[in-house]
Amino acid sequence: MMEKDAKIYVAGHQGMVGSAIVRELRRQGYTHLVTRTHQELDLCRQNDVEAFFEAEKPEYVFLAAAKVGGIMANHDAPADFLYENMLLEMNVLHSAWQNGCRKLEFLGSSCIYPRMAPQPMKESCLLTGELEKTNEAYALAKISGLRYCEYLNRQYGTDFISVMPTNLYGPNDNYHPTHSHVLPALIRRFHEARECHADQVTCWGDGSPLREFLYVDDLANLCVFLMNHYSGNETVNAGTGRELSIKELTELVAKVVGYKGVICWDTSKPNGTPRKLLDISKTEALGWKYRTELEDGIRLAYEDFLHNPTRTER
Predict the structure, then answer these.
(1) Whole-model pTM over 0.85
(2) Of 30, 60, 113, 138, which one is the catalytic site residue?
(3) Three-state DSSP class for 278?
(4) N or C: which end of the chain has fewer CB within 10 A?
(5) 138 is a catalytic site residue
(6) Mean pLDDT estimate for the chain
């Protein structure tokens, strides 16, 4: 168990996941949190990361920093996604081990699993099939990170664990019109359509893919729970165990935002993975369950969008 006054470093604390972890740690009474902005510490610079860990000696680390984006961003810049994520992961993991970090939690993504993995996807299906091409570079980086955690545990006796969340949404999300994930992109699109009284909104694909969504504050609660209650080489899935089609999702977002127009589908655009549902039996066996239902979470996310400065970006 983490002591309430233990020195805890949250890497990526300004992002959606990292900021949620900071909120949850403070809510639970942890008092000695260490953070650095990207301007203060570029995690892609090995010497700087080594100097930071040597000076601070954090006892616990949540590695939530990452370069992230939606289908278009991953398609346009795969080299950047692989390079930057590999660099920052390896720098933090290696320095944490070298400086005696008591426990580290690595945050990954459900895209690490094969494109056609049996559903729902168990942690054991990792590396049993071909990855989804639209986010292969990001997935390869995350797989390397979780494997490095496992190898450090086996070779050096560290206590580094990894968590693989499903699709996330909530406060501090990225609402960029082309580089965001599906749910925040839909929030922005329907909001703008409502504001300009658009008759219709066009979405990518045919709406058939099935997806699962987890509110980011629920993930943060699980992350702290696992840091205190789980150790092991196998990653842990983080999800709700519930799914819906992209078509159903768009209709739900339109309802929450208040858009009344027609939803059209551009079938010339990619759908992505046909289905992505995580097997959450491990977290259920540990005694954890998500709290926020999807419609309630979308309402909270929309409220965040209305006050989020990134929504003005073009």
Answers:
(1) yes
(2) 138
(3) strand
(4) C
(5) yes
(6) 94
